[in-house]
Amino acid sequence: MRINRTERILALAVVTLVALALACFIAVIVATSLGAGANDGFGHGIWPSVFFIQYYGLPLAFLLIIALLVSNAVRRSRAANGRGHGSA
Asked: pLDDT-based confidence at 38, cuts 50/70/90?
C-alpha cells in the first residue's frame, strides 16, 4: 500500500508541531524556574511566539491528525471500490 504525498506531509506536520509544542512547554518551565518571567519578562522578545506555539500547536496537531485520518479513509474507500489513481 502506497502512502500519498498529502498523507506524508500531514504526518510530518503533526510530528513537527507536537515536538515544537513540547519543546516550547519545556522552555517555559525552565525559563520560569530561572526567573525569566519576573517583571513581565515573558512579554517581549521571543517569548510571545513561544507561548503562541505552546498554546496552539497541540490543538492544531490534533486537527491535522483528524485530516490525516479522513484522507486515509477516503483513499482506502476509493481503493476498495476500484477507483484508485489511474482508473476512472
From this structure: confident
For the residues of 7-63, what is the DSSP string, one character each? HHHHHHHHHHHHHHHHHHHHHHHHHHHTTTTTTSGGGSTTHHHHHHHHHHHHHHHHH
Q: Is 46 exposed, middle or buried (0-12, 13-18, 19+ CB in 10 A)?
A: exposed
Instruction: Report yes or no: 81 and 73 within 8 Å, Cβ to Cβ.
Output: no
Contacts for 21 with CB less than 8 Å, ≥ 6 apart: 53, 54, 57, 58, 61
Domain boundaries defined on the chain: 5-79
Of 27, 10, 23, 5, which Cα lies nearest the Cα of 61?
10
The letter for the amino acid at 15 is V
Is residue 50 within 8 Å of residue 23, measured between CB atoms? no
